[in-house]
Design a protein that fits this description.
This protein is α+β, with helices and mostly antiparallel strands. It contains 14 helices and 17 strands. The strands form three sheets. An eight-stranded antiparallel β-sheet has the order 2-1-4-5-6-7-8-17. It has a six-stranded mixed β-sheet with strand order 9-13-14-3-15-16, with helices on both faces.
């Protein structure tokens, strides 16, 4: 599989039910655990970054229920949350993005720390960077840094600079999906169709904008899920649009046309998932770097699990894919990469996320059980050593981040308020 990894590592502190998390991600990553274990909260932490960039930090927090909805729920509520992301960009660049949000009385909040570092993989010297603390640019690679406001992410302001624009574009164009068949079934208002909405409510516009080769690819997978369907069309109804499915009749070449409201939830959801996975933008710079999907197996027949897994693997060749699941059928494959599985477990309302424990890894490596079979037996547990290590992870200073990531600053081009 081609390495399409955009986000390599995620470090979370105090985000919803997640007290601490430090995990590596693969081109295709499965978050596996029981209902209510906190799988969706992990995906939501990444979506939170995208929402804060696309709208505003205040809107992203309010959309999650405000302070009480986004902070870790504990007897003594923590006063901050933090998100750290190691990322990889095209053209040989990688980097690190970190933010810490402090929560103040009377429902106020502020961005206490925000760091962005970009470097060329061929060099250990940072190509571009900034460090913001309490509304002040403390360190930056640019002579004239944009203004700071403590209630917004600085990356929004820095996106006006060519050095940081690729980072902003990549994070703001992550797509997260919980497909709702009711929205796909409904008549839709056309839009730009550049990116599928979270619930699938603009799928007609996205389908209309797909390159024909990609649309055909989606239809080929859909045929395997729902035999007989060979084409999906978008029909205009004055200033509205609706999806039409074309299905061949068994006794000839005659084709039946079915509107979306005549199709089952499983078929509509499968279409939404496939479009989410394979949506592409002809502009390479605006390519969607990461797609997260919650429980893609819902409403699908168990026999379609193999087709879904093939589609996930196929899509992960170009776009990083993260899914949440508790489906043994989807994971019932002996060739599934062990490192692609993250086990999620909740104890007393606190979520633990880590690679699966060594005992389970050994059983899977020896092909005694598949990941799906262990899930049926409720034997997929987070590795306790990894969970304990994540709990001990502390907030890093700018200097420590540089040291850990093996990045050096060219002092000749350094602009800092600390010198």
């Amino acid at each position: 599989m081609k390495d399409s990894t955009f986000i390599k590592r995620v470090i979370l502190k105090n985000y919803k039910s997640i007290a601490a998390c430090d995990v590596q991600l693969q081109p295709l990553t499965f978050l596996v655990g029981r209902n209510g274990s906190g799988k969706s909260n992990f995906l939501d932490a990444l979506r939170f970054v995208a929402d804060a960039l696309n709208t505003s930090l205040d809107h992203a927090i309010r959309d999650r229920g405000g302070h009480n909805g986004i902070r870790r729920q504990a007897r003594r509520r923590p006063k901050y949350l933090s998100i750290g992301l190691n990322f990889v960009l095209p053209d040989g660049f990688s980097g690190y993005y970190y933010l810490r949000i402090n929560f103040l009385p009377a429902k106020y909040f502020e961005v206490q720390n925000e760091v962005c570092i970009i470097q060329n993989k061929q060099s250990c010297i940072a190509d571009a960077y900034y460090r913001v603390e309490n509304g002040i640019v403390k360190d930056a690679s640019v002579e004239v840094a944009p203004a700071v406001t403590t209630d917004r992410l600085y990356l929004v302001n820095a996106s006006g600079l060519p050095e940081f624009r690729p980072v902003y574009d990549a994070f703001s164009r992550m797509g997260f999906y919980n497909i709702n068949p009711a929205y796909i079934r409904d008549i839709q208002i056309p839009d730009s169709g550049n990116m599928l909405n979270r619930n699938g409510s603009n799928i007609t516009s996205v389908l209309a904008n797909l390159p024909q080769s990609v649309k055909t690819h989606v239809e080929e997978y859909l045929t395997l899920v729902t035999p007989g369907i060979h084409e999906v069309q978008v029909k205009s109804l004055r200033n509205r649009e609706i999806i039409v499915f074309l299905q061949k009749v068994a006794d000839g070449d005659y084709v039946w046309r079915y509107y979306a409201n005549d199709m089952s939830d499983g078929t509509l959801r499968a279409l939404g998932i496939l479009v989410a996975l394979f949506q592409e933008n002809l502009d390479v710079e605006n390519h969607i770097k990461l797609v997260g999907i919650e429980e893609p197996e819902l409403a699908l027949h168990p026999a379609a699990a193999g087709v879904l897994l093939d589609a996930l693997r196929d899509a992960a060749c170009k776009t990083q894919v993260i899914i949440t699941s508790h489906s043994p059928d989807l994971l019932d494959n002996k060739d599934l990469d062990i490192d692609s599985i993250l086990a999620v477990e909740a104890h007393d309302g606190t979520t633990a996320i880590a690679p699966i424990d060594e005992a389970s890894r050994s059983v899977i490596r020896d092909r005694l059980f598949t990941t799906g079979e262990l899930l049926r037996l409720d034997q997929l547990q987070p590795d306790p050593i990894s969970v304990e290590a994540a709990a001990k992870t502390k907030q890093l200073t700018f200097t420590e981040i540089l040291k850990n990531e093996n990045i050096r600053i060219d002092k000749k081009n350094r602009r800092t308020d600390d010198l």
